[in-house]
Design goal:
CATH topology of chain A: Mth169, Chain: A
Shape of chain A: elongated
Number of helices of chain A: 2
Structural class of chain A: alpha+beta
Helix content of chain A: 25-40%
Number of domains of chain A: 1
CATH class of chain A: Alpha Beta
Order of helices and strands of chain A: EHEHE
CATH architecture of chain A: 2-Layer Sandwich
Largest sheet of chain A: 3 strands, antiparallel
CATH superfamily of chain A: Phosphoribosylformylglycinamidine synthase subunit PurS
Strand order of the largest sheet of chain A: 2-1-3
Distance between the termini of chain A: 6 Å
Oligomer: homodimer
Chain lengths: 76, 76
């Protein structure tokens, strides 16, 4: 079983990495970039029988910081 | 317009960060984690009129390293 966890910064949390990407794109001549936010994508290979609740627990314990980050779990 | 770029390491490229996450999950008592790969998620806020080809060019120039990474662009 595979799970895909996307972790993004909550709205309002400063994202210096995204800002750096935005400036770099402008420096390279790409116009029209109004904002950039960078997040994480974590792909998990799981033993059969692992439940969505298990993945949720992994997110809360390690994969995301719920204080400043949102996460979304997709099972495939 | 929004674009979502996911950047993942190509198969066969070592992913020490993913490996570290896997070990940490095991250390926390989560069983059944057979593999972890970490990638990047870049969300772009773009001016109207920016095309998919523009985003593709941004990926090639800055957002991904096509030698070791795959990228996927989704426009929304």
């Amino acid at each position: 079983m595979k799970a895909r966890v996307t972790v993004t910064l909550k709205t309002g949390v400063l994202d210096p990495q995204g800002r750096a990407i935005q400036h770099a794109l402008e420096g390279l001549g790409f116009g029209g970039v109004e904002g950039v936010r960078q997040g994480k994508l974590i792909e998990l290979d799981l033993a059969d029988g692992t439940t969505a609740a298990d993945v949720e627990a992994m997110c809360k314990a390690l994969l995301a910081n719920p204080v400043i980050e949102n996460y979304r779990v997709e099972l495939a």
